[in-house]
Amino acid sequence: MAFSLALGAAVITQAVLTAEAVQRIFVEKAALGSIVLLLGTLLAVMIIRTLLMYGNGKVGLHMAAHAKTRMRAMVLQRLTRATMFSSLQGQTGGKVSVALDAVDEADSYFSQYTPRMMEAAIIPILILTAAFALHANTGWIMLCTAPFIPLFMILVGLQTKNKSEEKYEQLAMFSGTFLDSLQGLVTLKIFGRADRQQQEIERSSLGFRDTTMSILKIAFTNTFMLEAIVMLSIGIVALELALQLLVFKSMTFHTAFLVLLLVPEFYSLLKNTGTAFHTGRTSMGAIRKVEQLLEEASQEAHQLSGSPLDEMTHPFAQSEMETYSVSGENQSTSYLPPTIELRNLRFRYASEGFELEVEQLELHPGEQIAIVGKSGSGKTTLLHVISGLLQPTAGAILVNGRPLAQWSEVNWFKQISYITQHPYIFAGTFAENIAIGAGKDVSPKDIEEAAEQAGLADMVAGLENGLDTPVGEAGRGLSGGEKQRLALARAFLKRPAVILFDEPTVGLDLHTERILQRSIASLAKTATMITVAHRLYTIQQADRILFMADGVLADQGTHQELMERLPAYAEMVHMQQRGGIA
Question: 2-295 — its CATH code?
C-alpha cells in the first residue's frame, strides 16, 4: 500500500514535470540551460517511479514465496496427519498435483494480482482527483467510462475461475492416471493393456489441453476487449480536450497536455488490473483445490474434536499395566496386548456394495487368531476394520473397554504392525527400510538384531555392503520372500502389541515359508496375532479360527471344533489336502 501510494504520487509528478518541460521548450522557446534543473528533476522522478514499481513487484514476489511456503507446508501437514482411512482415498498423482502444481500456480495471485489490485485501489483515485482539479469534464468522462473495465473484468473473471477449477480437475485426473500407469507398467505390459492405457493417458492429456486452451481463449478475448474500451475512452477524452483547446479556446496547452498525459496512465492501470484479474482468477482455481484439501482436513478434525485424544497417553493404558521384556539381546519394555471387542459391527463399501457383519467378537490378549473363508467372504475387510484402516458404518470396536474412535490414531498405530502380502519397500538401504519400524532413532546393532530375527542374516551377509546395500523403489531387486522378511524385521524392531497378517507366506517356496513361519512364531510370543489365512494347514494350531461366509462371521472355534461342527470349513480343508497343499 505504501509503495502504491508513493507510486501514484510519482506518476502525477512525472506528468506535471513532463508537461512543464514541453511547455517551456516548445511553447515558450526557453533556452536549454534554463531547464536543466527541470529535466534533471524529471529524470530523478522517473528513476524513483521505476524503483517503486520494482519494489512493489519485489513485495509481491515475497508475498508469493511466503504464501506458497505456508500453503505447501499446510498441504503436506494435512497429508501426513490425515487419518489412515483418509490417506487411502483418492489417487496419489492427484495429491501430488495439488501439493506441487496447484501451489505453484497460486504464485501469480500473490505476485501479480494482489500488487496490481492495490495499485488500482489507490493510484487511479489520485489521478482522477488531479483530473477533476485540472478539468472537470475530463474527470466526469473518466468516471463514467472507467466502470466498464471492472464490470467486464468481473464477467470474464467468473468464467475464468470456473474454467480454471475445471483445468485443475483435469490436471489432477491426468496426474493420477499417469502415475498409476507408471507404477503398474509391468502389469499393463504383461496383460497387453499398455496400448489401451496409452490411449487413456492421451485422452486425459487432450482434455487438459482443451481446458487450458479455453482459458487462453478467454485471456485473448479479455485483452482485446480491454484494449478496445481503453482506446475508445482515451479517444473521447482527447476529442473533448481538442474541442476545448482549438474550438472554444477555453483551455491552455499546458493544462490540456497535462490532462492528456494523465488519462492514458489512468486507463493503463485499469487495463493492467484487468489482465492481472484474469491471471488472479486462474490462480484462484488452483488455490481452491488447495482449500478443498485443507477443508477436508478441517472437517475431519472437527469430527474428532469430541474425542479425548490428548487425555490418553497410550491406547492400552490401564490402571495397573504390566510390562514384559522381549527375548533376545535387545531387551526392551512394552505394554500388554489389549482386549479387542467388536459389537454389532457393520461395514459397507457403498450403498449397494459388499457388507460386513459381526454381531459379537472378543479377541483376548496374546491370542493367536486366524480368519478363514472363501474368496470374497470378507476376511481382509474384517482385518482392515480391526486395524482401524476402515471405519465401521455401524457398531463399535472397543479396545480395553473404550471405543477405538476415542483413541489417538498415532498411539494406536504405534502398537500394531500390519504385514500384507506385498509390503511396500522404499527407495533406500536395507537398514533405512528396517528402521522405519522403530518410529524413533535406533542403533545399528538394534537393526542387525531385527534383521537376524526376521531371517535376513544369511542374505545380508552375502551382500557387499550388508545392511547399507541400496534397495530399489517398491522393493525392485528383491524377491517376495525377501520383502516379507524385511517387513518382519520392521515388526521385530517395533515389538508391537498386536500383529496383523494378510497371509504373508502365499506364493513363497517351502524353504522361505518355513523361515517366515519361525520368525512369525517368535514375534507372536509377546503379542496378539490375527492372521488372514489362505493355506489352512498354517493355522491349525491357532487358539481360535474365525470362519467368514458372505461377509458374516459364521462360526469360531479351534481347528478340531470347526472340523466337527462346520461342514464348510471341513470341506475347505479336504479340498486343500486333495490339491496337495497340505
Answer: 1.20.1560.10
Cβ-proximal residues to 236 (8 Å cutoff; 6+ apart), any chain: 141, 145
Contact (Cβ atoms closer than 8 angstroms) between residue 526 and residue 453: no
Encode pLDDT of 438-464 as tens digits.
Answer: 766 788 898 898 888 888 888 888 888
Q: Where are the domains of the chain?
A: 2-295, 424-495
Amino acid at 112: Q
Strands in 368-373's sheet, in edge-to-edge order, are 402-403, 394-399, 340-348, 355-363, 552-557, 544-549, 368-373, 528-532, 498-502, 416-419
| CA–CA dist 575, 582 (Å, integer) | 10
The CATH homologous superfamily for domain 424-495 is P-loop containing nucleotide triphosphate hydrolases (3.40.50.300)
In terms of Cα–Cα distance, which of 168, 164, 176, 166 is closest to 96?
A: 176
Task: Report residues of the chain scoring pLDDT below 70.
Answer: 83-93, 157-158, 161, 186-187, 189-191, 278, 297-335, 351, 439-440, 473-476, 504-509, 579-582
CB 268 within 8 A of CB 230: yes
CA–CA separation, 131 and 10 (whole Å) = 15
pTM above 0.90, yes or no: no
CA–CA dist 352, 213 (Å, integer): 40
